[in-house]
Request: fold
Amino acid sequence: MTNDRRGFLKKSAAFTLGAVAAQALGSANLNELEHISESIQQLSAEAAIFTLPELPYAYEALEPIIDKQTMEIHHSRHHKAYVDNLNKALDGKNNTRSIEDILSTVSKEDKAVRNNGGGHYNHSLFWMLMKPNPENKTNPATGKIAEAINSSFGSFDEFKKQFSEAGMKRFGSGWAWLYAENKKLKIGSTPNQDNPLMDNAEIKGAPLLALDVWEHAYYLKHQNKRADYVNNWWALVNWDKVNEFYEKV
Ligand code: MN
Reply:
């Protein structure tokens, strides 16, 4: 969706640039040329901006496990701020790289790109990795990832225990991860908005499952009880999506 959107922006920008250039050839007016130059710069900038992805479900869809207000604030304010601040941090740099590409060499970027680029990527992933479960049914892993989890960690319960602990033990704000390093499944956590795609992260690999353990993800409903949030969150995991990511490893 994001790629389609960017492709569309690039195409429309290129089309408009062509029209503007044709117009400029017939014009000797200096003010007009300056105006055209500004338009070109603006269009180039627009071609590379990141946008807030829509949620694949309604704000209230994850209730009773995650409440509507938390989802609304988390998506429309926190995630939006990461997107806006990432675009600000990249302003004037003529960015044409994907977010994954930027993160792979993020040690060379400003701290603002690390924090906000990570924030944009992590949240985009997090929304996809959940799906509604209004009746709060048990939700064990399915498909190939279920087999890989069993062979890597002994059992699904043992995997859940280790992943939940990674989220619980992360001091302050951060994320818990299931990721693949050289095709091997691993569990870990990162501080702030770091993730395993970053060249300077504590853990490195392909993200498969992510859990946001920042207080903003759970404080309205669970206050300081991170364990309640983590334990309940398992009912929301979209295992089809985890399998999709696992197939690409
Ligand atoms: Mn968050």
